[in-house]
Amino acid sequence: MDVQGLPDLSARRSRILGGGSTRGLTVSLGSTIVVLAALAALFWLAPGSRQVRHTFFNPTDMWRAFVGNPKQGYYSVGEALWLNIRMFLVAEALILVLALVVAVIRQSSGPALLPLRVLAT
C-alpha cells in the first residue's frame, strides 16, 4: 500500500509484463517459430500443394497481374490499388473536415445554430 491507501501497482505490473526478463520473449519467439514452421511444412507437404503453388504463387503470373496488359484482356492490379489509395486519401481529408465542422457545430451555444446542432446530433 502506498501513502493514500491505494495498492502499489508497480509490482503487479512488473509481474504481468514479465519484469524485464527475457524468458517470456524467448518462449513466445520459439513458439512462433515452431507454429510458422509447422504451417509451412503443412503447406509444402500437403497433397496437391505443388499445383496450388504453381497456380496461385507463380511469381511470373503475379507480376503480370500486378503490371497488367489490356491488349491481352487483363488489367493492372497495381493501378487499381493506387486508385484505391488515392480515393482513400481524398475521402479521409473530406471526412476530417466534415468531422471538424460537426464538432464545432455541436459545441456552439448560439440560439441561431440550434437547427444545425439538432442536425449534427
Summarize the helices and strands and which ones pair or pack.
Elements: H1 9-17, H2 23-45, H3 49-56, H4 59-67, H5 77-107, H6 114-120
Helix pairs in contact: 5-6
Low-confidence blocks of residues:
none
Number of helices: 6
N-to-C terminal Cα separation, in Å?
45 Å
Output the radius of gyration.
28 Å
Residue-averaged pLDDT: 87
Pick out its properties:
121 residues; mainly alpha; 72% helix; flat
Describe this structure in words.
The chain has helices spanning 9-17, 23-45, 49-56, 59-67, 77-107, 114-120. The protein folds into 2 domains: 1-46, no CATH class; 76-121, no CATH class. The protein contains 6 helices and no strands. The chain is flat and about 70 Å long. The model has no long low-confidence stretch (mean pLDDT 87).
A few lines on this structure:
The chain has 6 helices and no strands. The protein is mainly alpha-helical and 121 residues long.
